[in-house]
Design a protein that fits this description.
This protein is 21% helix and 32% strand. With 323 residues, the chain is of the alpha/beta class. Helix 1 (45-63) crosses helix 6. Bound molecules: zinc ion (ZN).
């Protein structure tokens, strides 16, 4: 039977209680996989994925209870009080929980929650931390990982049915994230980034759900059954920083995004343009210098000089040269 329990309770100023809730399937034995969402309160796609997983496991418990061979922990609402009102950060402190790890069990609430979460997840065989960009940028479905952890993470990420695996060079800001701290503790953690904030996008969430089932099966958490929801995952593109071109605004203004996410673009294709709503002037046309696919677009139109307007995943020829 599944078991919903609280990992941490924090009394709030007006008598509510923050609860870090987990739904556990299995008895804690066997291989253990955790699915985490809602660290940022303006990201809802992960909640939809968690629902698909828990609904599937509820049905499996009824129809085929012997198929569960390990333990699955589902935590859809890490920053529940922010999710309640669609804000990104922990209220009052305006704190980004994913910049507070490893946290502090004796600190303020936005430090206690990360400390409790990190302690609970350490030792999990695989953790999947689902994000949904922010309100500004729309992302193709992807797993992001640091180069130093990639040899162990890429084989796991390939199950997840996403479009891109983006392997980053080192970056100091990432040292305060959940994924960095778990990977440092040898808990293999995959960060999924997909879609856009404040929305639920069913197609990409269902693709990830199916990928998670494939991963659960591969890790032996689910018996090797021919379940209809488990399809062979589509192979993702594996990209490093040299495969990524950034479109940054040269003017402040009103950005109109033209090229759709994940559509192929050729050199010279228009990505979008920036206009001046007051003076009726065209300030800038943003064109692609190379061939590739946009894996980040910007539906949010207000831009400042330097704002990110998109990212291009470069096509490469057989020698590895950008086209
Ligand atoms: Zn996020």
């Amino acid at each position: 039977m599944s078991d919903i329990f609280s990992i941490l309770d924090i009394r709030m100023p007006m008598s509510e209680t923050y609860r870090l809730l987990c739904n556990r399937y299995g008895n804690g034995k066997g291989p253990r996989v955790a699915i985490v969402a809602g660290i940022h309160g303006d990201e809802f796609n992960g909640l939809g994925v968690c629902y698909q997983v828990t609904a599937f496991l509820n049905k499996l418990e009824r129809d085929n209870p012997g198929a569960l061979r390990g333990t699955i922990d589902v935590l859809p609402g890490v920053n529940a009080i922010a999710l309640d009102n669609g804000g990104r950060y922990w209220p009052s402190y305006n704190a980004d929980l994913n910049r507070r790890f490893p946290g502090n069990p004796d600190g303020s609430p936005p430090h206690r929650a990360p400390a409790a979460l990190l302690d609970f997840l350490s030792g999990t065989d695989v953790c999947i931390d689902i994000h949904a960009s922010n309100i500004y940028l729309q992302e193709a479905s992807q797993v992001r990982m640091l180069d130093r952890f990639s040899p162990e993470l890429i084989p796991l990420a390939q199950y997840l049915n996403l479009q891109v695996i983006w392997v980053h060079a080192a970056s100091t800001v990432l040292e305060t994230t959940l994924s960095y701290n778990l990977n440092l503790r040898n808990t293999k953690t995959l960060v999924v980034e997909m879609g856009i904030g404040l929305r639920y996008e069913d197609t990409i969430c269902t693709a990830l759900f199916e990928g998670i089932l494939a991963l659960l099966k591969a890790k032996g958490v689910l018996a090797d059954l021919d379940l209809p929801e488990i399809h062979a995952p589509e192979p993702p593109v594996i990209a490093t920083d040299k495969d990524v071109y950034y479109f940054n605004a040269k003017h402040s203004g009103f950005f109109v995004s033209i090229a759709p996410l994940w559509e192929p673009v050729k050199p010279g294709d228009l990505i979008g343009y920036i206009v001046d709503p007051l003076g009726g002037r065209l300030l800038e046309e943003i064109k692609s210098p190379k061939a590739g696919r946009l894996f980040t677009t910007r539906p949010f139109p207000m831009v400042y000089e330097g704002s990110l307007c998109g990212r291009l995943l470069l096509d490469r020829d057989r020698a590895g040269e950008a086209l």
